[in-house]
Design a protein that fits this description.
6-stranded mixed β-sheet; 2 domains; 12 helices; Purple Acid Phosphatase, chain A, domain 2; alpha/beta
Length: 411
Amino acid sequence: MPPINVLHLADIHIGMENYGSFDSKSGLNRRVLDFLRRMAEAIDYALEHDVDVCIFAGDAYKNQRPNPTLQREFARRIMRLVNAGVPTVLLVGNHDMSTADRAASSLDIFRTLDVAGVIVANREELHQITCRRGQPLQVATVPYPQRSRLLSQDEYRDLSIEGLDNRLAELVEHNIENLAQEARQAPDIPTIFSGHFSVREAKLGSEQNVMIGRDLMISSSLLADPTWDYVALGHIHRHQELNDGRHPPIVYAGSLERIDFGEEREEKGFVWVELEKGQAAWDFVPVKSRRFLTIPVDIRQSDDPMTDILDKIDQYSFKGSIVRVIIQAREEQDPLIEDRRIQQALREASFIASIKHDIDRHHRRRLGDVNIEELSPLQALELYFESKGLDEERKAILLKHAEGIIEKGEG
């Protein structure tokens, strides 16, 4: 049998409208169009390169209640794979599922309509798949771990949040081991593991800002099982491989579009895998994601602030980008900064996120040459109180309360 060509993508988050404006032609926010175009770009590549199976590792939408237009646009793109005879696994992520156990997810419509070749993976399960060119494949799926599954059972209702998290982690780890044991019963069939959760060793990204609920951590050592020929993960937006090039590859595809400026320098894309039993050759394929650009300007030594600001902006190529400008200035220079002229200079940007005036004000200068990063939280707070001119009695009372709060947080 030929190698299995696998499209692995995740975290599309259709419905994100940050840094976008209304597009009258489509009736959608321009940022929503960005996310849809990246999904189409990934599917175009897959169909052009003879994809055999698609693993979507969760988080189709921004939230659990996408409007009908967003559902239609997602479905249109999935149906391109269906119509080409490509089996597609849709793993349910935390943004896709309801907070209530057993309630329908935003992806369940595909299962309800019994769309041929589409598997909605909302439970820990091993799926037997026949790929587009007839190759057999096993796919073990673990959707986002849902705490409400435990709360629905009487034996867990009195546990603390921490106790629930610990018990949930144990159950997920147990289920992963059971899936591996089941998969080993067909030792000659290539096998993919797909999960939507955080791996403890992974580098986090801006998904922390859009995360729903408290997160659960799984160790990469649990996934580094030779039963799996490839581990396709979703949930963390930064593309990364967590097994140091060993078998099996443990790969976060990452998101297809940037969410915010925390992802400004991250390349976005999907993963293309050529899979055989015992080996997986994979490549990260970048997409044409919208550029985020920060323009830093320091005019503290300038005699002509606005000229220097505009000259600095002129040095950047920002057409079609989402831009923010951060201006460092002295207090007396602040009234000379004209945001309207800056906006005019940036008129070819896709969106101006912000024009921030980072002003060296008097109370900041009073901190002197102290390196804030070397101070403890209590020392930094005390220094702040001093800069505000608080009397000693008031300062002592506030510091006493702050110390109790800090100790409680550390405990």
